[in-house]
Amino acid sequence: MKWLKILSIGSAAVVLILGVTLFGLYRMLYTSFDDFQHDFTAVKQHVKLDLFTRGYIEELSRDDTRNLYQKKCYRQCHGESAMITAVLSPAGWTQVVERMRVKEKVDISGREADAIIKFLEEKYPTVTSGYPYEVRKKVHHVVWRNDVGEGDIYTDVNYATREYLRSIGAEYLIEEYDLDNYYVFIVSFSVHEGELRIFDMDKVSFLRSPSGEAPTSPPWELRFQTADKHHFEGVVRFAKEGDTPIIDGSSKWFELVIKGVGGVKQRTFHYDLPLVYPPEIFAEEAVSK
What we know:
Strand order of the largest sheet: 1-2-3-7-6
CATH superfamily of the largest domain: Immunoglobulins
Shape: elongated
Order of helices and strands: HHHHHHHEEHHEHEEEEEEH
Radius of gyration: 26 Å
Low-confidence stretches: 79-87
Oligomer: single chain
Number of helices: 11
Number of strands: 9
CATH class of the largest domain: Mainly Beta
Strand content: 15-25%
Mean pLDDT: 78
Largest sheet: 5 strands, antiparallel
CATH topology of the largest domain: Immunoglobulin-like
């Protein structure tokens, strides 16, 4: 029993010394409890985000997701004005976040990217879709191509198919873009420094397949340009009919080629045929009918 008493006294002494030490550090580092509470909250948020990234936490609250976005995007690269002026419909936030993650090497994991994209879609809505996020993400990756930012200009291409436009809730564009008669591509150009001048996309774009090459069907359309002139998005289209259709039932691939932009001889965006969409897009369509 004597050793238990000694152990208890020793443990109490250790706790007392530790408490006095921590209190001393607190008085030395902080002038108010509010300052301490701020740092404690920041540490707690950091730990929670780290656990989410490692897969120990399945979902984040909206406040936690906002903190993740601010940590990874807002404080490191973009301010509020860039987000407000970036009218991304129908290109979407997915390609922006993915480009930052994959091409710009921003430290964002796949789980973090999904959370940030959902947050941006809620905070800066572009379109309303009846499809869940995971379906939209899968369809997006079928039609989306991008480059490595040669010439300091990053290019994102979305092949505007019926499935893609339907998935993002932009069915009205199917008729507006006349997809029965044209192959249509939504092309975005971005720079991080300086201004990006708008150029004639009809003069720099053509479609290539095993059958040959085809020019655009003018005029191309400017969808938007951000206020900081770091980004602009346009639409180019190619006639489906002609003496020799550029894409037919036997075509195994095609490429959108953009030449001479940013001093780069040509940028090539390749698609294998047939495009393979997630089955959910067709199941949802069948249910909706």
